Amino acid sequence: MKLITRFFASLLLGAAVTTSRSAEPTWVTYEPKAGPGAGKHIVLMSGDEEYRSEEGLPQLGKILSQRHGFKCTVLFAVDPATGEIAPNKGNNIPGTEALNSADLLIILTRFRNLPDEQMKPVDAFLKAGKPVIGLRTATHAFNGMKGEFARYNNGYKGEPKEWADGFGRLVLGEQWISHHGSHKGESTRGLFAPDAQGNPLLNGIKDGEIWGATDVYGVRLPLPGDSKPLVLGQVVKRKGPAEKDDKNFGLRPTDNEPVEGKKNDPMMPIVWTKSYQLPEGKPGKAFTTTMGSSTDLENEALRRLLVNATYQLLGMPVPAKAEVDIVGEYKPTAYGFGGFKKGVKPADHKL
Fold first, then answer.
1. CATH classification of 25-178+271-349, choosing from 3.10.450, 3.40.50, 3.90.1720, 3.30.70?
2. Strand locations in 238-299, DSSP E?
3. Of the ranges 34-48, 97-111, 241-255, 300-314, which one carries the lowest mean pLDDT score?
4. Could you give the CA distance from residue 132 to residue 129 in angstroms, rounded to a whole number?
5. How far is it, in rounded angstroms, from Cα 102 to Cα 105?
6. What's the pTM?
7. 125: part of which helix (H) or strand (E)?
């Protein structure tokens, strides 16, 4: 009798373990420490094949939660069969319903083709006119969707006309255009736009201090509507040789020689602000930077810029010099297709 009892008990325990594993969250939430952000909820939406948003956005969420007191939920592209983070899985970012209680969206996705049930909270958030920070490939965040949400696709050409060129253009100010700098061959130095000096978004940042190994993106000038460029991207030469095993491809923050010619005349905006309004929606504010790879976030000035933008978009006074120290260990990998770390689950990003 005892053996039978133990047998059934083991079955129940096995079922409980299986249920627990299947119920494992496919996102991660960072509960805040005390700070100015108390009561505010930020959703950080990752999902790109190239710039390691699955590494960078968890670190940004940790900084915002542990240094500034914001509750942060990080979403990932996930393979439903394994529960593992799968940046190449373009049609699944579970947990977008977190936007129903969010005050700010920070997005770095690329050409996502999400199902309607995952897009509905995104659409409702934007129709409510809530603020958005777009990083790097967020200018071409969505593509290939059909039906109601086809209008979000990069380069959209249908009705209504306000949606021309999709989410990137309407909300953030631009869609995918081009690599303006040489991809993996020229870096980006951020120089203040002529009339941007003194803008609170640049608090605690020196002119030229922003740097990243990602190249400058091309945009169409002038940017639409009330877009206001804050930082221009100087295309910078690589001083030394390309290094195969270097996450920055031999590019260095100490590289200081600008490329001659049209690439820097005029320089492309790499940071700007913009108002947006979806048809039948409320007006909202957006902040966009075409920087934002996981390796770019090793740059203290860029991290401070993103924290400053968070404060301003949430209607809070921007700190004179926001604390942006890395939380825990942060060893980002080189950007590039196929380079993501295999076997990582959202829970692995917990504090």
1. 3.40.50
2. 268-277, 283-289
3. 241-255
4. 9
5. 7
6. 0.93
7. helix 116-127
- 3-state helix, strand and coil shares in percent for the chain, rounded to the nearest 5: 30, 20, 50
Query: Which residues 6+ apart lie within 8 Å of 271 measured at CB?
Result: 190, 229, 230, 231, 287, 288, 289, 290, 291, 305
Q: Are 296 and 302 in contact (CB under 8 A)?
A: yes
Nearest to 55 by CA among 271, 333, 320: 333
Q: What is the pLDDT of residues 193-235, one digit of tens each?
A: 999 999 999 999 999 999 999 999 999 999 999 999 999 999 9
Respond yes or no on whether the N-terminal peptide bond of residue 58 is cis (omega within 30° of 0): no
- Tell me 343's DSSP state: T
Pairing of strands 71-75, 27-30: antiparallel
Is 228:272 a contact under the CB 8 Å cutoff?
yes
Compute the distance between CA of residue 29 and CA of residue 26 in angstroms, rounded to an integer. 10
Strand partners, 84: 79
**Interacting residues of 265 by C-beta distance below 8 A, sequence separation 6+:** none
Q: Which two tokens stand for residue 252?
A: 């260095």
